[in-house]
Amino acid sequence: MCGIWALFGCDCSDLVRCKEALKVAHRGPDSFQINNLEGLKNSMVAFHRLHVVGGIGGMQPMILKKYPHLSLLCNGEIYNYKTVRLYCAYTYRNDNNIKRKCVTSNTLTRPVEPENNQLLDGVFAFIVIDTKQNCVMLSRDSYGVRPLYYVTTKAGVLGACSEVKGLCELPVEGGIRHFPPGHYMFCDIMKNGKVIPSTPTKFHRIDEPPAHLQYQRLELENEETVKRNIRYLFSRAVDKRLMGSRRVGSLLSGGLDSSVVAALTAQKLKEHGVAEPLQTFTIGMNSDSTDVIAARKVARHIGSEHHEITFTLEEGMKAVKSVIFTLETYDVLAIRPSVPMYILCQHISRNTNNILIMTGEGADEVAQGYLHFLEQPTPEDGHKESMRQLQQIYMYDVLRIDRCTAAHGLEIRAPFLDHAFTSYYLNLPADMRAPKNGIEKYFLRAAFAGANLIPNNTLWRKKEGFSTGVGEEGTSWFEHLQQHLEGLVKKYRFARASQSYTHNTPRTKEELFYRQIFEKKF
User: Fold this and answer.
1) CATH 3.40.50.620 domain residues, the chain
2) CB environment 250-267: b (16+ within 10 A), e (fewer)
3) Quick one: fold of 3-202?
4) At a CB cut-off of 8 Å and minimum separation 6, what does 13 contact?
5) Are 215 and 161 in contact (CB under 8 A)?
6) Segment holding 128, helix H or strand E
7) HSE-up of 442 (CA within 13 Å, CB side)?
8) Is 393 within 8 Å of 331 (Cβ atoms)?
9) Which helix (H) or strand (E) holds 270?
10) Which residue, among 70, 9, 60, has the nearest Cα to 35 in the 3D structure?
11) Which keywords are on file for this protein (predicted)?
12) Alpha-carbon dihedral sign for residues 435, 436, 438, 440
């Protein structure tokens, strides 16, 4: 997890640029660098580094020895870096493990083809600047695990940043947009530094295997073989995400997804000879929250060093303003679960030395885990809904977990969004992946049955929303929140909501409360 920022064609002062670039400093608390680009007028890039792999040589922008006119800013991890390195045969000016972190500049140094982005097995958002050809390229991984926003104007300005807050006060006209996952974009830069506007081009569809999986040949001959392949692919997905020199922790709610991830992480760390036990982390409003009780049992089973964090309604309310600024949204469904997640990540950052955080995000979208999948008329409808949610996950669960961890200098690893695993799972027959006997994620659960990886009742625990699982005394966290805000927000303010906010008018006092905070921040 790092913070990248770039601005081209803007006539604003260096002071204004630096001020904007520093707004994402939390994403890379270890070091910072800001550069004017030699040979490009009105161009500047900045990088905030979180030290995960490599020493001092890991600072960016990176420059290829063979192609010194190329500069690279990348927030990401490339898991097949050895294969790509052999394919490209490049060496680096700073060769201290940079090859492990980002090797994405092959996309400009070879003939420019969309397929080159598909060679990368990993998560990434990157910007490549070519001062010889006077062009810039942006690219983002297939599921948008690493964030990237951009703004372009008719006046020739291009801005890009890991978060909206690094662009929102620039003196430019034009809306800030998500850079779409699985896309790249080339823009030519004129002599005066202005950028010729372009549009993103898709290089990968999530229902198609990317090019780096062209040699993956796994059998589909029978159900038991498929289950074995799922265990194998997911175990590999976890293992490759342990790359790095910082301590690994795991979020644990006691549900299927986080429990399988934590169990395999603990297993793999032992196989790699790591002496320290895996640390797992759970949050709830008290020690009797359903998630806390469930996670405690899993932690005992896998032998992790377990941490239980509790929070009060008052502590949750105190965090709301920070959460809205962190998420850059007033969306109720994003804010509610993000409050306990934000508090949990804050605790991890302040009280432990864990930097890499394993998480179960993505499982519900890939394996049809939400309860509404039980209501899909046919398996094919369930598949379509799964694909729809995966195409939008970068705006919801992935955004939430990225922002809550990044706000505290942590980095997420999400093995359920691994290319090899998702490509295989999503291409299984639709009826195999559909819920069965009223059980969501049935086939994923069945694949791990009998492995003794996690307790059996955890393996078959019914899906429970995060905001519900962290609640107390039969009342979910969001119900506590709603009740409190109902009395906090004045009736007359709510009555005027339609006049104050004509766009997306708040429909509840809770929505109004969040909207007021958002408007003050942005």
Assistant:
1) 231-278+322-471
2) bbbbbbbbbbbbbbbbbb
3) Glutamine Phosphoribosylpyrophosphate, subunit 1, domain 1 (3.60.20)
4) none
5) no
6) strand 122-130
7) 16
8) no
9) helix 256-271
10) 60
11) Amino-acid biosynthesis, Asparagine biosynthesis, ATP-binding, Glutamine amidotransferase, Ligase, Nucleotide-binding
12) negative
H-type alpha helices, 352-407: 363-367, 379-392, 397-406
- Written as tens digits, the pLDDT of the chain (522 aa) is 799 999 999 888 878 889 999 999 999 999 999 998 888 888 999 999 998 876 666 788 888 777 788 889 999 999 988 877 766 655 544 444 444 344 444 554 443 455 678 889 999 999 999 998 999 999 999 999 999 999 999 899 999 999 999 999 887 777 899 999 999 999 999 999 999 999 999 999 898 887 887 656 676 778 999 999 999 999 999 999 998 889 999 999 999 999 999 999 999 999 999 999 999 999 999 999 999 999 999 999 999 999 999 999 999 999 999 999 999 999 999 999 999 999 999 999 999 999 999 999 999 999 999 999 999 999 999 999 999 999 999 999 999 999 999 999 999 999 999 999 999 999 999 999 999 999 999 999 999 999 999 999 999 999 988 888 899 878 999 999 999 999 999 998 999 999 999 999 999 999 999 999 999 989
User: DSSP string covering 148-209, please?
Assistant: -EEEE-TTS-EEEESSGGGTTTSS--S--EEPPTTEEEEEEB-TTS-B-----EE---TTS-
Side chain identity at 238, as an amino acid letter?
A: V
Q: Looking at this protein, which amino acid is placed at residue 383?
A: H
Which regions of the chain carry the CATH code 3.60.20.10?
A: 3-202
Q: How big is the chain, counted in residues?
A: 522
Token output for 119: 């060679």
In whole angstroms, give the CA distance from residue 348 to residue 343: 9
- Which CATH fold would you assign to the domain 231-278+322-471? Rossmann fold (3.40.50)
Q: Determine the Cα–Cα distance for residues 371 and 57; give it in Å rounded to an integer.
A: 47
Are 472 and 285 within 8 A, CB to CB?
yes
Question: Six-digit token pair at 383?
Answer: 């598949």
Amino acid, res. 79: Y
Q: Provide the annotated active-site residues.
A: 2
- Between the CA of residue 381 and those of 385, 392, 399, 426, 429, what are the distances in Å? 6, 17, 26, 13, 13
